[in-house]
Amino acid sequence: SLLLSPCLSETPEARVLERAVLESRVREMEEENRQIRLQLNQLQGTAGQPADGGNYGNAAWGASLIHVACVCAGHNASRDVVTLVKSILFHRRNPLHFHFITDAVANQILSSLFQSWMVPSVQVSFYDADELKSEVSWIPNKHYSGIYGLMKLTLTKALPSDLTKVIVLDTDITFATDIAELWAIFRKFTDKQVIGLVENQSDWYLGNLWKNHKPWPALGRGFNTGVILLYLERLRRIGWEQMWRLTAERELMSMLSTSLADQDIFNAFIKQNPVLVHQLPCFWNVQLSDHTRSEQCYTEVSDLKVIHWNSPKKLRVKNKHVEFFRNLYLTFLEYDGNLLRRELFGCPSQTGSGGSLELDEDDQCYDFRRERITVHRVHLYFLQYEYTPAGDDTDVTLVAQLSMDRLQMLEAICKHWEGPISLALYMSDAEAQQFLRYAQASEVLKNRKNVGYHIVYKEGQFYPVNLVRNVALRNANTPYVFLADVDFLPMYGLYDYLRKSVVQLDMAHTKKALVVPAFETLRYRLSFPKSKAELLSMLDMGTLYTFRYHVWTKGHAPTNYAKWRTATTPYKVEWEADFEPYVVVKRDCPEYDQRFVGFGWNKVSHIMELDAQEYDLMVLPNAFMIHMPHAPSFDISKFRSSPGYRYCLQTLKEEFHQDLSRKYGAAALKYLTAQRNI
């Protein structure tokens, strides 16, 4: 029936609502008819290709596209939402369009992540939360989510006006089934219903949790807004924006602030307009909050469809099935996101003729070449990051890359270098979670907010060392970068010394690369030298050595350690074959050449390009760094044991030389000559 109940239709407000519902139903029927005609045309082979854009319910993917909206702000929420997305992608059989309302931090992180993830049949749109703050900033809110906990109220305004329906989810949700089942419930809405919610599974809105507990008004136990079906088209027609505002203004006169953010306002609105809500079965939002009674919702854990970790305690909540829930959550937390790049059956393939099709699989170095065109997932700023730029434009970021086996170096580096750090970590999804636990348990790392940790997810058989370095380099936020390795500890005070050297050597107006001399110890426990004089004494005693002097002298010989011993001012050195010093340069320096993977020539090629671009190599007289001992990497073992590996590295070197000659002309001939003379 399209009629409202007599008691409701007596009021002018209800008559407006009834008219809006009727208009909405007519439009829906017209849209359904249009869809049927379109499908008939397609069956007859006369339909054109769907255009990009237009009605969001049918653009590009056809009528089966499912829309999901999330409010996501900050580093932690950006990490949490990935687990939600993985759980949806794992079960889904439909194309998806994610709509993220984000702050600047989450926008940067998630746009980079989805761009590099390249999941087929997934579209992503971002909406600036800052533009919506004025809509809700007037509402006092005690909830730990802050102003972003109120943003769901603004979705009719934030999302495209031609988007008719959307599933709205909190970031702390995990799916245990196909989201299409939830989307299908829209078809069960009556003509009047505009919002689908699960009943709240705690006694919060009953007001009996503690003495003098006074919650916002709600219908019975109230509803939980962690999972919402929003019929946007109908909400716009009934004047949702005005209605929720009036509700909030009225209740705030006595309540003064919200305790559960948007949920309080949604519930007060539903209490006034119960006919508008469609109650979802409780297994669509099994809530694991502090005062939950969620186990009364299901008889078997197999009944569960959505788990909601809606407690600040998250995984530490009390529930008799919490171990099952925790394992389900951890499954997606540590699940290899690369496996979710699979195509959907029946959907048009989005992968064009990529670079992999141009490679010759019979090429002996096919695996090396394939690595160069592999797109790795990247999660920028995996942990909380705060950096305030220095006012004098001399700031320097230490840039390095590492894998799981070098994690123990991080605390020591942070103690030696107080300036900003940009680290790229090459890890699997499971290792990234191990790193997270390690960082959160470390007092040293917890107290450092000026370290940017960027996860490059593992894929392929080689370590893409230069790709990982480039991720760290691109995400340095200072005018200058110190291109280091994670196995080195910089001398105490190096950060301040480099900033002074930047000014002294007029780096802002000249093309220079400042060389930090490298040394090494073979001892795991080292009394770190406090000065150059102490270092020279340890060098004479045989406690320290010039870096790789006994294995690969040419790598650092041009530094001229004999001259450095007595130098008091910076001195210029010339490039020589295989020189690979650690340098300070402007952030806009050339990137590392990504054809070099694993061991061999990854830094040599970079210094060669700096020289080709006519950078002056200046050795700093009072700077040093010391390499700490570690087991050989897997890649150096492959280099030493595999003739095929060495052959391919030589082939890549020759191709790099050819590319250098094409790029820099006759000036690059010296590199080819130097290589032949080796």
Automatic annotation (TrEMBL):
Signal peptide: none annotated. Its main location: Golgi. The keyword Cytoplasm does not apply. The keyword Transmembrane helix applies. It holds the Pfam family Glyco_transf_8. It catalyses: 3-O-{(1->[3)-alpha-D-Xyl-(1->3)-beta-D-GlcA-(1->](n)-4)-beta-D-Xyl-(1->4)-Rib-ol-P-Rib-ol-P-3-beta-D-GalNAc-(1->3)-beta-D-GlcNAc-(1->4)-O-6-P-alpha-D-Man}-L-Thr-[protein] + UDP-alpha-D-glucuronate = 3-O-{beta-D-GlcA-(1->[3)-alpha-D-Xyl-(1->3)-beta-D-GlcA-(1->](n)-4)-beta-D-Xyl-(1->4)-Rib-ol-P-Rib-ol-P-3-beta-D-GalNAc-(1->3)-beta-D-GlcNAc-(1->4)-O-6-P-alpha-D-Man}-L-Thr-[protein] + UDP + H(+); 3-O-[beta-D-GlcA-(1->3)-beta-D-Xyl-(1->4)-Rib-ol-P-Rib-ol-P-3-beta-D-GalNAc-(1->3)-beta-D-GlcNAc-(1->4)-(O-6-P-alpha-D-Man)]-Thr-[protein] + UDP-alpha-D-xylose = 3-O-[alpha-D-Xyl-(1->3)-beta-D-GlcA-(1->4)-beta-D-Xyl-(1->4)-Rib-ol-P-Rib-ol-P-3-beta-D-GalNAc-(1->3)-beta-D-GlcNAc-(1->4)-(O-6-P-alpha-D-Man)]-Thr-[protein] + UDP + H(+); 3-O-{beta-D-GlcA-(1->[3)-alpha-D-Xyl-(1->3)-beta-D-GlcA-(1->](n)-4)-beta-D-Xyl-(1->4)-Rib-ol-P-Rib-ol-P-3-beta-D-GalNAc-(1->3)-beta-D-GlcNAc-(1->4)-O-6-P-alpha-D-Man}-L-Thr-[protein] + UDP-alpha-D-xylose = 3-O-{(1->[3)-alpha-D-Xyl-(1->3)-beta-D-GlcA-(1->](n+1)-4)-beta-D-Xyl-(1->4)-Rib-ol-P-Rib-ol-P-3-beta-D-GalNAc-(1->3)-beta-D-GlcNAc-(1->4)-O-6-P-alpha-D-Man}-L-Thr-[protein] + UDP + H(+). PANTHER family: GLYCOSYLTRANSFERASE-RELATED, XYLOSYL- AND GLUCURONYLTRANSFERASE LARGE2. This is LARGE xylosyl- and glucuronyltransferase 2. Its cofactor is Mn(2+). It comes from the Eukaryota. In the N-terminal section; belongs to the glycosyltransferase 8 family. In the C-terminal section; belongs to the glycosyltransferase 49 family. Keywords: Coiled coil, Glycoprotein, Glycosyltransferase, Golgi apparatus, Manganese, Membrane, Metal-binding, Multifunctional enzyme, Signal-anchor, Transferase, Transmembrane, Transmembrane helix. GO terms for cellular component: Golgi membrane. The lineage of its organism: Eukaryota, Metazoa, Chordata, Craniata, Vertebrata. Bifunctional glycosyltransferase with both alpha-1,3-xylosyltransferase and beta-1,3-glucuronyltransferase activities involved in the maturation of alpha-dystroglycan (DAG1) by glycosylation leading to DAG1 binding to laminin G-like domain-containing extracellular proteins with high affinity and in a phosphorylated-O-mannosyl trisaccharide dependent manner. Elongates the glucuronyl-beta-1,4-xylose-beta disaccharide primer structure by adding repeating units [-3-Xylose-alpha-1,3-GlcA-beta-1-] to produce a heteropolysaccharide. Supports the maturation of DAG1 more effectively than LARGE1. InterPro entries: Glyco_trans_8, Nucleotide-diphossugar_trans, Xyl/GlcA_transferase. Residues 19-46 form a coiled coil. One of its GO terms (molecular function) is glucuronosyltransferase activity. One of its GO terms (biological process) is protein O-linked glycosylation via mannose. It is a single-pass type II membrane protein.
